[in-house]
Amino acid sequence: MATGRADAGPEATRLAEEQAALRRVATLVARESSEAVVFRGVTEEAAGILDTEAVGMLRFESDGTATLVAQSRTPWDPPPLGTRLTLEGENILALVLRTGQIARFDDWADATGAVAAMARGLGIRSSVAAPIIVEGRLWGAMIAVTSRSEPLPAATESRIGDFTELVATAVANAEARGALSALVNEQEALRRVATLVAEGATPARLFARVAREVAGLLGAHVYSAVLRYEPDDTATVVGVWDRERPDGFRVGARLPIDGSGVTATVHREKRPVRADDYSATRGAIADLAHVHGITSAVGCPILVQSHVWGAMVVAHYEPEPFPAETEQRVSQFTELMATAIVNTAARAEVERLAEEQAALRRVATLVAQGKTPTQVFDAVVAEMARLLAWRAPVRSLSSPPVGSRTSKPTHQSLSASELECASLSMARALRLGCCGPAVRRGSIVMPYEAARSRLWPGA
Questions:
Q1: What tens digit of pLDDT does each residue of 268-308 get?
Q2: How far apart are the C-alpha atoms of 289 and 286, rounded to whole Å?
């Protein structure tokens, strides 16, 4: 009986110490401490509980490497935090990455790869690594190592798992907070852009703001641009933000949309497009992107009434591609821009109609005042020139036709389309009865050509 109690004493003490260590780590997690603080606390507590010389924590990256994110105190000179190790070969971390299971190496003699080379260089003999599973995905690994001749205890595998579960909770909480923060930032950015749309901001101001907002949401090293597709298979840059390359693309630049780049593909396929390896793309814009060091890009169409008006393109200079949800996030901004473009066109149409009605009222006033046909015709031409913003001088319809006996060769001739537009306005004026008996008989309005022949006999 006494022997049993004596044997239970050390085990009970060990369990109490382990539970106390886990509670301290759990407290860090519950307080929503930073990842760096939690990771450091976990490695220090685990090293003391597992009776090992050092504990390290690594995050698996998408490119097949592992980044050292935390480590306990060690009896040797450790690699600095942030060190990235390639996971090729046969070694304990490569095994965890492949299987997602706990692994043990008590002999590194036959291990290969960069991890094995570092372990031998530090004199490590025995190690146990456990996966860190965050919401069903393999996030990284925690590894306990020793340079002692005897291997780590058999219970190390089960005990290290308790710590990796707490790490997984801390990582999930941090990611949830990060996702919530990103969502809040995104909604604030969308609200700012929507406010500009509602205020009727100029297109230049809106596009510049959207480019900046989107770049800010997607990362510190992101380039973004808004492009308008032109009828001649080019794209004009109408908004841009690029903190990394101030000498890059500029507003007003007009570029061919050829090849396999993101801008050209969006134009052809009218859908969101991504290029995770931009070095494989070709074309005028793609070639410029290569020069500026762009590594990946995502493009989304700006659809205005089912027509591809342009595109928004985001790109960056980092080796990792954009996250999978990037297209959806960018599309929220392209929808707002499409609304702004429609609103701008609608306002312009309303203004145009208002100007046209004002012009017709001015012509009708001349009619009501009994002005001569020459005065009315000259007024019609002047109003049409102002409405259409003609830059070339416009010849008065009251001037004799070129080639007639009274023509003046110095007058600018109207094109067929200009003459048609002026004729339609003239016809509207004639229907108002503006020209009196010279071109109106009873209730029948004379055709335009008849009116002209009355004005210029012998033409």
A1: 999 999 998 888 888 888 888 888 888 889 999 999 988 99
A2: 5
> What kind of fold does domain 200-339 have according to CATH?
Beta-Lactamase (3.30.450)
List, for residues 402-441, the tens digit of each pLDDT value: 444 444 433 344 444 544 554 555 455 545 544 444 444 3
Alpha-carbon distance 305 to 34, whole Å? 47
Burial per residue of 417-430, b for 16 or more beta-carbon CB atoms within 10 angstroms, e otherwise: ebeebbbebbeebb
Q: How far is CA 432 from CA 172, 182, 365, in A?
A: 76, 63, 10
Q: Is 348 exposed, middle or buried (0-12, 13-18, 19+ CB in 10 A)?
A: exposed
Q: Round to whole Å and give the CA distance between 43 and 55.
A: 5
What pLDDT, in 10s, does the model give residues 230-267?
999 999 999 998 876 666 778 888 999 998 899 999 99
- Distance in angstroms (rounded) separating the CA atoms of residues 89 and 91: 6
Give the distance, in angstroms, between the CA of residue 122 and the centroid of all CA atoms in the same chain.
45
CATH number for the region 13-175 comes to 3.30.450.40
Instruction: Work out the end-to-end distance of the chain between its first and last CA atoms, rounded to an integer number of angstroms.
Output: 134
Helix (H) and strand (E) counts in the chain:
12, 14
Q: Which residues pair with 142 in a beta bridge?
A: 57, 130
Give the CA count within 13 Å in the CB-facing half-sphere of 234. Answer: 9
Instruction: Parse the chain into domains and list their residue ranges.
Output: 13-175, 200-339, 370-455
